[in-house]
TrEMBL record:
It is found in: Cytoplasm. The gene is accA. PANTHER family: ACETYL-COENZYME A CARBOXYLASE CARBOXYL TRANSFERASE SUBUNIT ALPHA, ACETYL-COENZYME A CARBOXYLASE CARBOXYL TRANSFERASE SUBUNIT ALPHA, CHLOROPLASTIC. This is Acetyl-coenzyme A carboxylase carboxyl transferase subunit alpha. InterPro entries: Acetyl_CoA_COase_a_su, ClpP/crotonase-like_dom_sf, COA_CT_C.
C-alpha cells in the first residue's frame, strides 16, 4: 500500500539487520530494538488518521483474514453445508454449523481466494444467486432449530454477470432482505473487509451490525461512484470520502452499532488477535439479545433499518 511505503522500507531494514547479525555473529540487538520501536511509533502514526480511501486499501489487503480464517480460529466442530437445493453450490459464500465458545451458531460468510486460482474458484467473493439462496437456506435451518446466525461480510458486490442476472440475482438479494427482516432467530452481522452494495446487504439485515476498524461499507465502490458521479474513475479517493464508507463515519450515521478494533497496522498483521477481538464482540452481542422475546427482537430489527436515511424536517 502506498501510504505504507516508508514503513515497508523500515521493516526490510530490520530484517536485513537481523540477518546480518546472525550471519556475522555480531550483537546488534540494541540497534534492532531501536528500529522496532521506531516501527511501532510509525505504525501508530500511520494508522491513526487514515483517509477513507486508504481504509479501502486496507480492507482489500490480500492477506486480510477471510471467513474461513475466522472459522479456523474461533469456531469448533464446524461442519460446512453446501448447495441451495435449486441449482448448485456457490463457493463465493461458505456456511455451516459450529460452536463459538460452546454455543452453537450457523455461520455464513463471503469467501475470497488467496491467489489467482482460488480467486477464480471463489469468484473473488462475488456471489451468484445460488450463493444467496444457499445463505437463506442456512438461515431458515437456523430458525428451525433456534440457532443464532453470524454473517461475515466481505465482497465488492454481488456478481454482475449475464448468467447471474438470468438466474435471478436481484430477486435472490431482495428475498434475503425480506426474509432476514422477519427471521425468528438472533442475527449478528460483521463487515470484515469490503461491504459492497446489495451483495453485502443480502447478508447484513441483522439485530447487531458491526464493522472492523479498517473495513468499508457502501452502496457502490469508490471507483464505480467516481465513474458515474464525476465521469472520472481516477477520482475514487474523493468518492470514498464523499460516500462516507468508513466505520467511524457509519457509526455516526447510525448505520452500524459498533466498531471492532483491529491489531495495530490492520487485521492482516495478526489473524489470531483479530479473530479473538471479533469473537469477544460477537459473544457480547449475543448475550445482549439472546433473551429478548422474538417479536420484540424482530420489531427492533425492523425499526433499526427503517429509520436509516430519515430526514429531519427544517434541518
Amino acid at each position: 500500500m502506498e501510504f505504507e511505503k516508508k514503513l515497508k522500507e523500515l521493516e526490510i531494514k530490520i530484517v536485513e539487520l537481523e540477518n546480518f547479525s546472525k550471519e556475522k555473529e555480531i550483537d546488534l540487538s540494541a540497534e534492532i530494538e531501536k528500529l522496532k520501536a521506531e516501527k511501532e511509533m510509525m505504525l501508530v502514526e500511520t494508522y491513526k488518521n487514515l483517509s477513507s480511501w486508504e481504509r479501502v486499501s486496507v480492507a482489500r489487503h490480500p492477506k486480510r483474514p477471510y471467513t474461513l480464517d475466522y472459522i479456523e480460529h474461533i469456531v469448533e466442530d464446524f461442519e460446512e453445508l453446501h448447495g441451495d437445493r435449486l441449482f448448485k453450490d456457490d463457493p463465493a459464500i461458505v456456511g455451516g454449523i459450529g460452536k463459538i465458545d460452546g454455543k452453537r451458531f450457523v455461520i455464513i460468510g463471503h469467501q475470497k481466494g488467496r491467489d489467482m486460482e482460488s480467486n477464480i474458484y471463489r469468484n473473488f467473493g462475488m456471489a451468484n444467486p445460488e450463493g444467496y439462496r444457499k445463505a437463506l437456506r442456512l438461515m431458515k435451518l437456523a430458525e428451525r432449530f433456534k440457532l443464532p446466525v453470524l454473517t461475515l461480510i466481505d465482497t465488492a458486490g454481488a456478481y454482475p454477470g449475464i448468467d447471474a442476472e438470468k438466474h435471478g440475482q436481484g430477486e435472490a438479494i431482495a428475498r434475503n432482505l425480506m426474509e432476514m427482516a422477519g427471521l425468528s432467530t438472533q442475527i449478528i452481522a460483521v463487515v470484515i473487509g469490503e461491504g459492497g452494495s446489495g451483495g453485502a446487504l443480502a447478508l447484513g439485515v441483522a439485530d447487531r451490525v458491526f464493522m472492523l476498524e479498517n473495513s468499508v461499507y457502501s452502496v457502490i465502490s469508490p471507483e464505480g461512484c467516481a465513474a458515474i458521479l464525476y465521469k472520472d474513475a481516477s477520482r475514487a479517493s474523493q468518492a470514498a470520502n464523499d460516500l462516507k464508507i468508513s466505520a467511524k463515519q457509519l457509526i455516526q450515521l447510525g448505520v452500524i452499532d459498533d466498531i471492532i478494533e483491529e491489531p495495530l497496522g490492520g487485521a492482516h498483521r495478526d489473524h489470531e488477535v483479530m479473530a479473538k477481538n471479533l469473537k469477544t464482540k460477537v459473544l457480547e452481542a449475543y448475550a445482549e439479545i439472546k433473551d429478548l422475546p422474538m417479536m420484540e427482537l424482530k420489531d427492533h430489527r425492523y425499526e433499526k433499518f427503517r429509520k436509516m436515511g430519515e430526514v429531519n424536517q427544517g434541518v
